[in-house]
Amino acid sequence: MIKESPLAAAAAIYRQEVPAGDYWIKVLKQGQSIRILDLVGNQAADTLFYRADDPSERYSAVDTIREQGNVYLSTGSKLLSSEGNLMLEITADTCGRHDTLGGACATESNTVRYALEKKTMHACRDSWLLAVAENPQFGLTKRDLTHNINFFMNVPITPEGGLTFEDGISEAGKYVEMRAAMDVIVLLSNCPQLNNPCNAYNPTPVEVLVWDAQA
Amino acid sequence: MTDSEQNLLYQDVLPGGTHWSFTLKKGTVLRLIDQEGGANVGMLFYNPTNLLERYNAPDTLKCQHVFKLTRGNCLYSDMGRIFCSIITDTVGWHDTACGSSNKQLIAKKWGIRSYQQYGNDWTLNGQDSFLIEATKYGLGKRDMAANVNWFSKVAVTEDGTMQFDPANSSAGDYIDLRFEMDTLVLLHTCPHPLNPAPEYPKRSVIYQLRRGSEATEDDVCRTFCPENGRGFRNNHLYHLLA
Fold first, then answer.
1. How far is the C-alpha of B57 from the C-alpha of B146, rounded, in Å?
2. Which of A71, A147, A165 minimises the CB distance to B156?
3. Cα distance from A162 to chain B (closest Cα, Å)?
4. Which residues of B touch A117 (CB under 8 A)?
5. How far is the C-alpha of B98 from the C-alpha of B147, rounded, in Å?
6. Between β-strands B162-164 and B50-54, what pairing exists: parallel, antiparallel or unpaired?
7. Could you tell me how many CB contacts below 8 A there are between chain A and chain B?
8. CA A39/CA A152 separation, integer angstroms
9. Taking the complete model, does pTM exceed 0.90, yes or no?
């Protein structure tokens, strides 16, 4: 469901542009809101969440979609943990629909999806691997790189059981915003994929904005 | 005696609401038979020589452009390799997007039957079942992933609504999984988390082991899509010096 945010960019306590092919990892405090802004359009932001004080509890795609009874994420979606706890809620969304079934690209899955020769092309899971290696303070390893959300990505499921990657429905200036219900580590890869329409074959930057809890 | 009976190496029954695990060698065929109809088998896969390589449901779905699993489909690891392929399927639809039941879900839906009061007729949940099996191999909560739910169908309407089909699998329905590499298999027979049955459904499953033959060039799984051809090629490279 399309819903605009009442939060003004000028009131954000943090703003950071994340180039395509790069990662972003930070702790978001309970009550804070995070916005991911698609600056140029049709960009995919592959995102994972972990409970900050016990990262073994993490975002669970399957629990989230099963409990809301719908495979797509949008305003009102409650992002649940592997323990069934509320981690974040999507409070605003000007894109309308986000995927959580397609997973993140990897060099290995690129060999299967496109060609064995594509194995050296940059991929989201490489960004995540570098993120956990460069940020040992979070205690994350490859074990923790699991089933993510693809913000802005359009992956329709058909009633017959098909799944396709379609052209994005996002545009420049569209965004999704979430409020944290607990302290969470946010790990985002701004997708470098060049082989499918998830980035319109042209990976571009996104911006991350954070607001403190609203009174 | 039929070929199938002759090749049978082992069979056993898992009662409903239980769990088990085993390591299967490349070339083994695992048959799962829904004994009474309405079974659910939760399953996860790991590489026993590198437990960091594990079943990846998103890769499995997107590599084959499917939401359901059936004959011809392969189950991929996060490293671009195929753990096993579905060479026979009398059901037609298996789920890998709904996860497993947990304690809260069982309590809300069917109520908790404690071991103290009910003994082994208690109401185990899928998540605890996986954790018990996983911990036998040094794995834990951080190693859990989106699992397969064999025999269960959850379809999706145009607007994304998920619908469980209680009539998906009948007594005697079965699948054959051909293992394309050595694989650690964790499984449970706890009910599908979207099963609307008024009572906690306990459905037993027979599992059988046979020695299979290698996938031919025109194999139904290898030729399901060009992606699977490349997946088999990755397995070939993995076994090059084995």
1. 6
2. A71
3. 4
4. none
5. 8
6. unpaired
7. 126
8. 12
9. yes
